[in-house]
Amino acid sequence: MDNVQTVINRQKAFFTSRKTKEPEYRIRALKKLKDTIQCREEGIFAALQQDLGKSPMESYATEIALVLEELTTQIKHLKHWASPRRVKTPLTHFISHSYILPEPYGVILIIAPWNYPFQLLMTPLAGALAAGNCVALKSSRFAPATQEVMESIIGECFPEEYVSFFRGGNDINQSLLQERFDYIFFTGGTETGRHVMEAAAHFLTPVSLELGGKSPVIVDKDADLELAARRIIWGKCINAGQTCVA
Predict the structure, then answer these.
(1) Is 9 exposed, middle or buried (0-12, 13-18, 19+ CB in 10 A)?
(2) What separation in angstroms does the CA of 212 have from each of 114, 147, 179, 204, 215?
(3) pLDDT score for 1
(4) Residues annotated as part of the active site
(5) CB 3.0 to 4.6 Å from 34: which of 67, 71, 95, 241, for a disulfide?
(6) What percent of the chain has pLDDT over 90?
(7) By the 8 A CB rule, do 158 and 134 touch?
(8) What is the pLDDT of residue 133?
(9) Is 30 in contact with 129 (CB distance < 8 Å)?
């Protein structure tokens, strides 16, 4: 792969071609990704087993199924979501007609963690593609087998100027954050999230941060305590407890 700046510049040039603004182009991309994931399920299972010790059942329930559901929803509703929406015209512009027209941001950076390495990279990718963006993906080096499978899937589905895939550690993260993206979506720890937001602030780039933390549970006095306890323990233990809301 070429250096980070070269790849991102190619993606910016590809976005200006306006190909990704066509709903049919986006739908074809999403269908291709969905079909490829379904064909590569066994390889994804094996990679998640190697990296995290997940069983195929847990891998499907917590990773693959969620991604496929997201892709199915995007494909089904994309044309409607991308259509202009008529809104009320202010009295001062009474001779005009007013619309809201959804527009893609441009080139988006998605950085994913190791605990749900497949789902937390592919799910935001689905949304970004459905919205008409080009995407740069950075997966976690702490899930190397899954990283390799995902890189192969992305390479099979998309040209690099549309969706690029980066491997490596903090050096690659820093190189990516020095580039001017149009949106950054980060999932990970709070401390790293601060660095991402600081880098984004230099360019006034909008950011979504999905950070780790504790999630308290409120059990009301009229709750079924046995059922509540069972569900709380399930939520705490799924994925070996490595969940941001555990």
Answers:
(1) middle
(2) 12, 21, 25, 24, 9
(3) 58
(4) 210, 244
(5) 71
(6) 87
(7) no
(8) 99
(9) yes
Which residue from 42, 41, 39, 19 is spatially nearest to 31, judged by alpha carbons? 39
Q: Identify the structural domains of the chain with CATH numbers, from first to last.
A: 4-83+103-212 (3.40.605.10), 214-246 (no CATH)
Tokens 């969706």 correspond to: 163
Contact residues for 153 (Cβ-Cβ < 8 A; gap 6+)? 33, 36, 37, 40
Query: Closest by alpha carbon to 41, among 117, 153, 159, 154?
Result: 153
For residue 5, give the 3-state DSSP assignment.
helix
**How many Cβ atoms from other residues are within 10 Å of residue 21's Cβ?**
14
Q: Which residue bears the tokens 């250096």? A: 3
Tokens of 42: 């066994």
The phi, psi pair for 98, rounded to 5°, reads -115, 140
* 183-188 β-sheet, strand order: 163-166, 134-138, 107-111, 183-188, 207-211
Which pLDDT tens digit goes with each residue over 158-188? 999 999 999 988 899 999 999 999 999 999 9
